[in-house]
Amino acid sequence: PAAALRNGLDLVPPMGWSNWESSGCDVSEDLIKRSADALVAKGLADVGYKIVGIDDCWAELNRNASGHLVPTANFSSGMKSLGDYLHKRGFKFGIYSSAGVHCCQHTMPGSLGYEWIDAQDFASWGVDFLKYDGCFMEEFHETLQDAPRRFPFTPPPILRYPIMQQALNKTGRNISYLCLQLSLEILGLFKDPSAGGDWVGEFCNSWRTGGDAQPGFFSALSYVDGSEKYTTAVPSRPGRWNHLDSLEIGNNVSFDASIIGGPARPADNGEGGMTQDQERAVFSLYALVKSPLFIGADVLTLKGHSLETYLNKEVIAVNQDPLGARGRLVRPHGGADGGEVWAVDLSGGEGCIVLMNRQQDQTQDIAVTWEEVGLAEKKNTEMNVRDLWLHRDLGSFSDGFTAKAVRPTSAVVLRVSPKVDMTSRRSWASKI
After folding, report:
1. Fewest CB atoms less than 10 Å from the CB: which of 322, 358, 365, 385?
2. Helix, strand, coil tally for the chain in percent (to 5)
């Protein structure tokens, strides 16, 4: 493959699980294997969570004499053996590195200057997915005169991600490539989100749109809100996706970034646990904006309504729709017309609408018209409406739909399909 966009990967947003949000640096071969087995046992693998990702702290602080990364004693069977274990169970093997001299927790080397060696090692281990961070980039920590003593050429961050992409492609193995800091640097470089960074998708399959996620409902909403500016600056579509970070549904811990390998601590502001309504709202919005869906909770203990949320096939189908259109905010919270409205085009002339009540203490009636979301250009257009959390057809509605008494911090999620063939209608995105 010549470039990430052309590697044929991630034509729909990738789905999986990563250990970082639940265990941080406390990672081992045993944890990864047991977590993979839990994904199978709890039905999560069957609905699409196929990537099992190892995050930071999996390697020793120093490379060996030949320049290769050395897995810690926690991975005593070796990375190739672990990759084989995951592949035999139908999973893809995800691993982590950084475009700097160290990874973010400063417990293992980054790949700066070793991109070709590391890419070859990853491929030989059977890695299918690389999460590539942006910590300890050389020019941020060394003066101009010091840098050449370590590397003859220290490229700026905006070039380091393409270097690893070329190294991955050279292996001949298709490896999905998540770039963490690059899209943030584009916005910082150009200042104006409308400046455009569509070329990022030429070498990244996905890219992060914010920092590390933290538990809590309003924290999760801030990631959805923050991703809106990327719809113009770094637009997503099949093979190239805006990644909001892992979902914190079912996760009640966060990690203290000031402590290397920081211990788990209760989430701030009492936001550690979300209600069932809040979890459903967050999951629906992540799905609608086509973020890759990665479980951030401990799958060994995941249960109850949190597990149920991750297993909703109808909402997952919105995220995995082959059209690949990204959802957009149609009407913000607090407007004169009531609650918040999000919408997305789906294949076959269908669409999905999220009616969101952000108020914390009041129910709200939320009305939407088909014309408002670009579904209809004339009055009296009938649409079939299905509630994706009730798993129930609500009937056919002309002109629009009103969700009655939407509970505080919750959402009603609708799949809407025309009663006649409207695949040639204008897209919702052109209206929004």
Report:
1. 322
2. 30, 25, 45
Of 55, 121, 133, 277, which is the active-site residue?
133
Reported confidence tier of residue 114, pLDDT bands at 50, 70, 90? very high
User: Do 208 and 180 contact (CB within 8 A), yes or no?
Assistant: yes
User: Quick check: is 121 catalytic?
Assistant: no
Q: Residue 111 and residue 119: Cα distance in Å, rounded?
A: 9
- Max Cα separation, the chain? 73
Q: Residue 39 above 90 pLDDT?
A: yes
Amino acid at 173: R
Q: HSE, CB side, 13 Å, CA atoms: give it for residue 246.
A: 27
User: Can you state the angle between helices 157-170 and 115-125, rounded to 10 degrees?
Assistant: 40
393 is a catalytic site residue:
no
Residue 62, burial from CB neighbour count under 10 angstroms (0-12, 13-18, 19+) = exposed
Rounded Cα gap, residues 275 and 420, in angstroms:
38
Question: What's residue 213's pLDDT?
Answer: 76
Q: What is the Cα–Cα distance from 105 to 287, expressed in whole angstroms?
A: 30
Q: Looking at 244-327, which runs of residues are DSSP E strands?
A: 253-255, 264-266, 293-295
Which DSSP letter does residue 240 get?
B
Q: Residue 102 in 3-state DSSP?
A: strand
Contact 232, 202 (CB under 8 A): no
Give the helix/strand (H/E) hosting 344. strand 340-345
Reported as a single tens digit per residue, the pLDDT across 309-326 is 999 999 999 999 999 999
Q: How confident is the model at residue 56 (pLDDT cuts 50, 70, 90)?
A: very high
Q: Out of 26, 37, 212, 225, pick the active-site residue.
A: 212
Q: What was the pLDDT predicted at 2?
A: 35
Measure the N-to-C terminal CA separation of the chain; round to a whole number of Å: 35
